[in-house]
Amino acid sequence: xxxxxxxxxxxxxxxxxxxxxxxxxxxxxxxxxxxxxxxxxxxxxxxxxxxxxxxxxxxxxxxxxxxxxxxxxxxxxxxxxxxxxxxxxxxxxxxxxxxxxxxxxxxxxxxxxxxxxxxxxxxxxxxxx
Length: 129
Hints:
Blueprint: E1 4-7, E2 10-13, E3 18-24, E4 34-39, E5 46-51, E6 58-60, E7 68-73, E8 78-83, E9 92-98, E10 100-101, E11 112-113, E12 123-128
Parallel strand pairs: 2-12
Antiparallel strand pairs: 1-3, 3-8, 4-5, 4-9, 5-6, 7-8, 9-12, 10-11
């Protein structure tokens, strides 16, 4: 079973930046699309961004487009999320996971899901106003 460990969260003021990392325990990481999700207190978990296995395509939720950038380094089995211009509404626990499209007919542009529905410990991002 692949273990995913998220890190890089913290407390930042609005307008600031953070870079999240997600490190996988196995080399099979580079065979799959990966995504970031977040869950704010009292809200459902939502998809933030995802990236195809080779980094060739990236997708973003409308709420983070233009502010967040997803990337991956398959040689290091690591996924990243650069978050700029952070807003208080970005406050949440952030998780990474291998992903599949919600609808294979639409591809990742139609949204993505964690098919295994298992989650790591996440990393907490808190943005103060």
